[in-house]
Amino acid sequence: MSITREFLRAPAHTGAIAASSRRLAAAVVAGIGVERAAHVVELGPGTGVFTEALLTRLGPGARLTAVEVNPRLAEALAQRHERVEVITGSAEHLARHVRTADVVVSGLPWALFPRARQERVLDQVGEVLVPGGRFATFAYLHAAWLPAARRFEAALARRFGFVGRSRVVWGNLPPAFVHRAAVTP
């Protein structure tokens, strides 16, 4: 399954023209407690680059649930990774499918979302994360100054007790950085 093809079919739903790099995937899953998590949720897994990084860190008996709005990408991910529970649907309805999660990782195109959609998805993330739960997502360096990206950063700061940003991952096209946030226990 080609992420470029899916981008051309539906650019509003597929925010990347190319799949994220393994370097970005490693940065996204680093330091968020995947190894100790009982349940990890991935929003917008696309072709599964982050999924693979999560699976290598997931502990025995832990669950990984992936929520993908694109049915073609969801089906391909389910066929490739039998261990992953794949839900075809919007992250805006996450709490309908998931009760609690220790970690939520997102590959969603936040800078493309209008304010209301950013808020709805972040509300859902906050609803399912347990006290002390962690959230990680990424943003492209060139888009960090856009109003939607700034709104997203402000929304993170309002919702989480801790918010941080990684160094730039230059080994991604385009270069990106990781937002990490934690729910205060």
Automatic annotation (TrEMBL):
Protein name: Phospholipid N-methyltransferase
Organism of derivation: Amycolatopsis thermoflava
Keyword Methyltransferase (UniProt): yes
Keyword annotations from UniProtKB, A to Z: Methyltransferase, S-adenosyl-L-methionine, Transferase
Domain Ribosomal RNA adenine methylase transferase N-terminal: 24-153
Transmembrane segments: none
Keyword Transferase belongs to the record: yes
UniProt xrefs under InterPro entries: Methyltransf_25, rRNA_Ade_methylase_Trfase_N, SAM-dependent_MTases_sf
GO molecular function: rRNA (adenine-N6,N6-)-dimethyltransferase activity
One Pfam family, short name: Methyltransf_25
Domain of life where this protein originates: Bacteria
